[in-house]
Amino acid sequence: MRIGSVIIVIWLLLGLVAAYQRGYFKDTGDASCAEAGTVIVTTLAGPLNWLGVNPKIKCEVPPPSK
After folding, report:
1. If 0-12 CB within 10 Å is exposed, 13-18 middle and 19+ buried, where does residue 46 land?
2. Could you give the CA distance from residue 33 to residue 27 in angstroms, rounded to a whole number?
């Protein structure tokens, strides 16, 4: 069980490095669910990012009803 936990932590750290390399943590002032989703999916993809996986999330929030 311990080796599995170490592998998962390393996998997620590599995913964070990939997200950082793509500039997803820069403060552009435009925070959205799409940006947050893309960072999360990129982190979960881990080392697959360097094999060509480029996950992106699209989401649209409907305007509030009147």
Report:
1. buried
2. 15
* Residue spans of alpha helices (H) in the chain: 2-21, 33-45
Give residue-wise pLDDT tens across range 9-47. 999 999 899 888 888 888 776 677 778 888 888 888 888
pLDDT bin (cut points 50, 70, 90) of residue 3 is: very high
CB 49 within 8 A of CB 41: no
39 close to 24: Cβ distance less than 8 angstroms: yes
d(CA 34, CA 40): 10
* Spatial separation of the C-alpha atoms in residues 23 and 39, rounded to whole Å: 10
